[in-house]
């Protein structure tokens, strides 16, 4: 189920509780807090999820290069400095982050 905003989530939760209570059904409510979850994703899991979703090897290699290592250089007054590498390339806030996080969240939903 896709919840578009936080208020819609509250409505869906209330309707689910009402349905379970009115039909006297047993149920379990599972709440997932995604705060800071992106920073805890194992990149090997992301690669496996992309493979299972049918992403081509070329795409997976590109994504791996984004998330594993990034070369950074400083440009000050058209003077380019030395390149240095960071350990973690992609971070929360990068344009690619929401797409990859949705892939991981979808795999979590499938596992549950």
Q: How is the main sheet built?
A: 2 strands, antiparallel
Nearest-integer average pLDDT = 78
Oligomerization status of the protein chains: single chain
Distance between the termini: 13 Å
Strand line-up of the largest beta sheet: 1-4
Q: Tell me the fraction of residues in β-strands, as a range.
A: 5-15%
> Helical amount among residues, as a percent range?
40-55%
Number of helical regions: 4
Order of helices and strands: HHHEEEEH
The total of beta strands comes to 4
CA radius of gyration = 20 Å
Sum up the overall morphology in one term.
Answer: elongated
Q: Catalogue the unreliable spans.
A: none
Structural class assignment: mainly alpha
Summarize the structure.
A hairpin with a 2-residue loop joins strand 2 (75-76) and strand 3 (79-80). Helix content is 48%, strand content 9%.
How do the strands and helices of this protein lay out in sequence?
Blueprint: H1 6-22, H2 43-52, H3 57-68, E1 70-72, E2 75-76, E3 79-80, E4 84-86, H4 97-111
Antiparallel strand pairs: 1-4, 2-3
Helix pairs in contact: 2-3, 2-4
């Amino acid at each position: 189920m896709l919840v578009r905003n936080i208020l819609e989530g509250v409505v869906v939760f209330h309707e689910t509780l009402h349905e379970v209570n009115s039909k006297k059904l047993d149920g379990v409510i599972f709440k997932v807090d995604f705060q800071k979850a992106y920073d805890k994703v194992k990149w090997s899991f992301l690669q496996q999820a992309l493979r299972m979703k049918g992403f081509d090897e070329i795409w997976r290699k590109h994504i791996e290069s984004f998330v594993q290592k990034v070369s950074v250089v400083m440009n000050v007054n058209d003077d380019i400095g030395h390149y240095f590498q960071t350990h973690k390339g992609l971070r929360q806030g990068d344009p690619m982050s929401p797409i990859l996080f949705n892939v991981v969240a979808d795999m979590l939903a499938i596992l549950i």
